[in-house]
Amino acid sequence: MTRPPTAAQRRVIDAADPVTGRLRGTEFQLAALVARGLAFRHPRPPHDHFLTPTGHRIREEAPPADTPDAAEAPHASGATGVFAARVGGEAETPAAGPARAREVHSAWTGLLELRRMTNTDGAMDRPCGWERKHLVQAAALALEAAGHLPADGKGDGGGGGYRVRATPQPEAVAVREPDGDALRACAATLEKAGWQAGEYTEPRTGTRYLLASPRRT
Question: What pTM was computed for the model?
Answer without folding.
Answer: 0.65
